[in-house]
Design a protein that fits this description.
Binding site for ATP: 148
Number of strands: 13
Distance between the termini: 31 Å
CATH class of the largest domain: Mainly Alpha
Order of helices and strands: EHHEEEHHEEHHEEEEHHHEHHHHEE
CATH topology of the largest domain: Transferase(Phosphotransferase), domain 1
InterPro entries: AGC-kinase_C, Kinase-like_dom_sf, Pkinase_C, Prot_kinase_dom, Protein_kinase_ATP_BS, Ser/Thr_kinase_AS
Biased composition (Polar residues): 37-52
Strand content: 5-15%
Structural class: alpha+beta
Strand order of the largest sheet: 2-3-4-6-5
Keywords: ATP-binding, Kinase, Nucleotide-binding, Phosphoprotein, Serine/threonine-protein kinase, Transferase
Region (Disordered): 13-52, 71-103
Number of domains: 2
């Protein structure tokens, strides 16, 4: 989903394909700049099943939206489910919130100012806390839509990861999570420098210096997640935001996988087509190195304008990921080409980061001029400043969302009889048990 502040889980579909043995890894081909056609970051893959590779044929049959169960809506009004839930139509049974702090959190604690994002399960709104006067991004999701698509466990995983991310400078922080009978609320850091995708689309590509800075901050964030035994699995420009001074912030943790210790693996098929690692595409077990592949793909895109194996023909793109040699321009430094070759190694056991994870990344020559502690402390001046005039400057958000009226129901605390549903309610339905989170009083508004 393009130009959305916090991408709402539900735009990717999880699928499965046969386990196949990896073919030998092709060698890297260095090509001069004139051999690669100039292009923009506007990417619209086209489904085309004309391929001789059985892996890709099977994958594309699963990739066809007609083969994937979907939520049924009125074809004349595709936003009907979204609007019904946002305007007060509630589930019959409130959810079990689990043990929470004594302090209650409810929708009418906030003044909802603008819609700044929209997705399959709800909306993201700019909101001000009425008492503390702090500004947040509030992600409001519909329980009914989540349950129809069987995504409850991913929502809970996102909430769990967000709780662990609060103290890292390059990961969006969660301040509150709470629920009403029909909706879930994430109260998140508000970041208004725009998506990296937005800036890349406008500028086509970045200088190597600028790309290196962003890649270093991404690597720091990914390395932190790995230290918590979490694989991110969805690194892409749409999930990377710039803050008001130009530092990156990773958001959207709905595809994260927890509990991956050491060289542990998982096999769930998920991600975004342009950035899928070969082992994921083959439905083989994969490990933390899948994130380093994605870092390589994003770094390549920042320097060259498109993902490394991109094609408008989806079948061809998957073939490219599996079999095509990596092509690199000669106007990128030797260290730049070297790290791309290492990160985009098709054999995961030979990939940069396979042995010592983040340590291998930060020790590479490409990052030799980066002081990693200064980077973490935000002492390095970003190469680009979004030049926002203040917290309410929305120039880096899609006008399509900003012009949309704020649904009245998001600011009302849904009722069950005459009682407010807040973070202290305990009910029988355990689908979203433990979702609600209220910080300890001393941390409430750091």
């Amino acid at each position: 989903m393009k130009n959305v502040f916090v991408k709402i889980l539900g735009t990717e579909r999880k699928r499965a394909s046969e386990k196949k043995k990896c073919p030998p890894t092709p060698t890297t081909v260095i090509t001069p700049p004139e051999d690669i056609a100039s292009s923009t970051s506007t990417r619209v893959p086209q489904l085309n099943h004309n391929t001789n590779n059985p892996d890709v044929r099977l994958f594309l049959s699963l990739d066809n939206p007609r083969n994937v169960p979907a939520v049924t809506v009125d074809p004349a009004d595709p936003d009907r489910d979204d609007e019904d839930a946002m305007n007060g139509n509630k589930d019959d049974n409130p959810m079990n919130l689990g043990n929470t702090e004594k302090t209650t959190v409810k929708p009418n604690d906030f003044e909802f100012l603008k819609v700044i994002g929209k997705g399959s399960f709800g909306k993201v709104l700019l909101a001000r806390h009425k008492t503390e006067n702090h500004v947040y991004a509030v992600k409001v999701l519909q329980k009914q839509a989540i349950m129809k698509r069987n995504e409850a466990k991913h929502i809970m995983a996102e909430r769990n990861v967000l709780l662990q991310n609060v103290k890292h400078p390059f990961l969006v922080g969660l301040h509150y999570s709470f629920q009403t009978p029909d909706k879930l609320y994430f109260v998140l850091d508000y970041v208004n420098g725009g998506e990296l995708f937005f800036h890349l689309q406008r500028e086509r590509y970045f200088s190597e210096h600028r790309a290196k800075f962003y890649a270093a901050e991404m690597a720091s964030a990914i390395g932190y997640l790995h230290s918590l035994n979490i694989i991110y699995r969805d690194l892409k420009p749409e999930n990377i935001l710039l803050d008001s001074t130009g530092h990156i912030i990773l958001t959207d943790f709905g595809l994260c996988k927890e509990g991956i210790v050491g060289q542990g693996t998982t096999s769930t098929f998920c991600g975004t087509p342009e950035y899928l690692a070969p082992e994921v595409l083959r439905k083989q077990p994969y490990d933390k190195t899948v994130d380093w592949w994605c870092l390589g793909a994003v770094l390549y895109e920042m320097m060259y304008g498109l993902p490394p194996f991109y094609s408008r023909d989806t079948a061809e793109m998957y073939d490219n990921i599996l079999f095509k040699p990596l092509r690199l321009r000669t106007n990128v430094s030797a260290a730049g080409r070297s790290i791309l070759e290492g990160l985009l190694q098709k054999e995961k056991d030979l990939r940069l980061g396979a042995n010592r994870d983040f340590y291998e990344i930060k020790s590479h020559d490409f990052f030799s001029d980066i002081n990693w502690q200064d980077l973490y402390d935000k002492k390095i001046t970003p190469p680009y400043n979004p030049n926002v005039s203040g917290q309410l400057d929305l120039k880096h958000f899609d006008p399509e969302f900003v012009r949309e009226p704020v649904p009245a129901s998001v600011g009302r605390s849904a009722t069950n009889g005459s009682k407010l549903v807040s973070a202290s309610v305990m009910e029988a339905d355990a689908v979203f048990e433990g979702f609600s989170y209220v910080p300890p009083a001393e941390d409430a508004f750091d």
